[in-house]
Protein: Homogentisate 1,2-dioxygenase
Amino acid sequence: MNSGDARKTAEGPAYLSGFGNEHASEAVPGALPDGRNSPQRAPLGLYAEQLSGTAFTEPRAHNRRSWLYRIRPSAAHPAFTRSGDGAIRTGPFGQTVPDPNRLRWDPLPEPPAGTDFLAGLWTLGGNGDAAQRTGMAVHLYHANASMDRVFGDSDGELLIVPEEGGLLLRTEFGVLHAEPGEVALVPRGVRFRVELPDTAPDGGRSPAARGYVCENYGAHFRLPDLGPIGANGLANPRDFRAPVAAYEDVEGPVEVVNKFCGHLWSATYDHSPLDVVAWHGNLTPYVYDLRRFNVIGTVSYDHPDPSIFTVLTSPSDTPGLADVDFVVFAPRWLVGEDTFRPPYFHRNVMSEYMGLIEGAYDAKTAGKGGFVPGGGSLHNMMSAHGPDRETFDRASAAELRPQKVDDGLAFMFETRRPLVLTPQAARADHLQQRYDDVWQGLERHFRRSDDTLH
Ligand SMILES: O=C(O)Cc1cc(O)ccc1O
Ligand SMILES: [Fe+2]
Structure:
């Protein structure tokens, strides 16, 4: 293999900084044409190819496309044939009756040896319709082997949230590294391979990689508007990192898997499709370190709605109504006076899938049988939830000194439509059976005169 690899820094691959920027990168000097996208003959004998992420005519502020200069055009491939879908499912989700119950899962069980990222993807549920390009799916993954095939998802962009084990993503645009605490996004259709880097001190294979994926069938994730917050805050654009160009020059059979309208299709190419020597444009994969999130909260009283924690949003056609939001509960100070500080009791018109990357979440008791890293909870539209009894008791009695919440990293995929489970999620052994019990014992404290409660 002749690999034009990315320039490396001491910590890992080199990156280009900024969300949605017009970037340009070449792995070989002179590979990018000057002053035009499609010269009569592209430099170095490369093929020019455009990859669009939005309709050509969408407003400039949202328009996404990149130009790729590659050893072979993507068109040079044989026919795809259907392969098994494994545990991957796609909207529309109609195989279970939508469930109004509060649900919680333990982490995915250990997969058989030799399970790569694609084979380890397991769909929990979702909504909308991939063919209508609206809605989303929640997947989890548990893998213990690097892919040697290449994957591209025509149904949506993939927001990958590692929880255990780092991932090396070799993409058409270059190499990305995502550790737990970071997220990676691969745009719709971009081909990539997920490798599990050797992280064990003895140079052995890292034991496993586990995490979550939001497959977004709708509009690209973008940064939320900041409104009165001002020009800065939440996720800062410069903290998003795109890869520098890096290519594989591989002649020989490479399996390429394409997810298209819910099914996996496979073709054996006679070369690697990760053969982009240079590219420019604003449609790129990227990584973001969630610990860089600039958390904003109250400095007076009350618990702000969690929209204040939105990292990325995929808007619908209705202003302010997201198809899906990606929200992070990052380390922060709590200072609210005369305030119940954890998340309040609520019933939400949006549906909430929550995951835990590490530690504990401030509305739920940690530990075995509770909300644990790698597990997840689903609070569908209008289902009543909030702090569990232990949290309610503790927070109602706590002395309200400034308090640093820095013992965990939780996130939420919040979506406009109820999430419908796959049969495998509805019947999973790792679905907790007694989640409702966390709200048992919330006794009545009501007295007609309010002199006893506090
Ligand atoms: O724990 C949850 O349910 C998520 C959540 C957090 C919060 O701070 C306020 C509302 C909400 O739904
Ligand atoms: Fe909630």
